[in-house]
Design brief:
Layout: E1 27-42, E2 47-63, E3 67-71, H1 78-85, E4 93-98, E5 101-102, H2 108-117, E6 118-121, H3 135-146, H4 154-164, H5 181-193, E7 199-203, H6 211-228, E8 231-235, H7 239-245, E9 248-253, E10 256-262, H8 263-268, H9 273-280, H10 324-328, E11 334-337, E12 340-342, H11 362-368, H12 373-394, H13 399-418, H14 437-446, H15 449-453, H16 456-459
Parallel strand pairs: 3-8, 3-9, 6-7, 7-8
Antiparallel strand pairs: 1-2, 1-4, 4-5, 9-10, 10-12, 11-12
Helix pairs in contact: 3-4, 3-5, 4-5, 5-6, 12-13
The structure holds adenosine-5'-triphosphate.
Length: 461
Amino acid sequence: MSDEKAVKIPAQSDGAAPTEGSQSGEILLKVTGLQKHFPIRKGLLQRQTGSVRAVDGIDFEVRKGETLGVVGESGCGKSTMGRLITRLLEPTAGKVEFEGKDITHLGVAGMRPLRRDVQMIFQDPYSSLNPRHTVGTIVGAPFKLQGVEPEGGIKKEVQRLLSVVGLNPEHYNRYPHEFSGGQRQRIGIARALALSPKLVVADEPVSALDVSIQAQVVNLLDDLQEELGLTYVIIAHDLSVVRHVSDRIAVMYLGKVVELSDRDSLYKAPMHPYTKALMSAVPIPDPKRKNEKSERILLKGDVPSPISPPTGCRFHTRCWKATEICRTTEPQLLELKPGQRVACHHPENFEDQAPQDTVLLSAAKEAAELVPDEVLEESAQTSAAVAAEVEAVAAPEEPAAAEAEGAAAADAASDAEGSQDAPEEPGASEDSDESGPAADADTSAESGKPEASAGQESTEK
Ligand SMILES: Nc1ncnc2c1ncn2[C@@H]1O[C@H](COP(=O)(O)OP(=O)(O)OP(=O)(O)O)[C@@H](O)[C@H]1O
């Protein structure tokens, strides 16, 4: 927890109602099919030779009063997404709606009123503040730009904002270099809050700060949300930060949202293998679990290039569950559990979406070497259990049959456990990513459904 003095937050003059849970709130921002492709130009004539598909068709919504955390490895398009929704960048395709109004292609004049409602906090408090301007000028700039005259004058309002973010209002005339990193980030936050925005997009708001200072700034953002009824989109690569602040979390991979879920469901039972891998890297601050064996999943290689992303599921080149369908068919982001959307053919903690597709790609077999056996076993077990549950619900009139199915699935799971170290069956799983659709059809015909749903990744090992 923060070691700084409690921040006293005075009431906001036209303050919004304090935040009420976020689960069923009104939608403030809605994004549909959003894309940003940066052209790559070469030669004297600057011909376009390709494009960086930084954001490549994403859908999500942000509800009033909630915090949506956005996570993913470096280069997956988080910042680009943040700049698109604040309209600092023009989307290549798709739609951005704010309070039900389409703002996708608004021009400078059309955007002016919106600039008051949507603000951004930037990552680097060292470069985002003009070193030649005083704090008073920096925090007061939004009033001048918008032609707003706050009650009591700009100076008084800026001093109030400085005290809201825990800075000394007397430091109004100081310059950014006279402040520490954490204090500079507070200046950036004060500037973002100046016009009482409805939505604040914070791009890595604490990653440039010392760890001890990070907690202070995160707590400040939390307090401000409660007091001012703010809605946040917080972009971060640090899952501990995101877990602390978010109500819901969107996991991005190579320009796509692969999972979008309530925070607790995501941390308790992630459904996308990529989410599971990311989560496994988060240290668990629980002394009771200190001596537990680590089940960290190491992902193979780097994120592929967004210039030519892999076909089908973009994660298939690093996924230990990938089969032919993952290489050929892009999975849609579907709500498989209430409040949990995932784009995966072979999700974790859920029934397999492509149980007929059982032959692992060679990349998956290599990736599986980096996944601890415990994780593979647990994955096979949970898939089997969920599949059995689904079967039972699907056929209530035949309880005996459902039970038999469940038992078969559970058996298959334990078989799968047993076969972790079993030698590969000759031919059966040989480099199917090199094989054509005919090979795929063969293997589909061979594979039985209950066995497949019991954790296809292990049965083929
Ligand atoms: N203006 C630009 N022109 C060309 N490519 C760009 C531009 N901005 C971003 N990109 C590319 O788009 C991809 C996504 O970048 P982005 O900064 O959105 O990712 P990110 O997830 O925020 O990464 P990081 O955490 O490192 O900032 C990257 O491959 C990046 O190189």
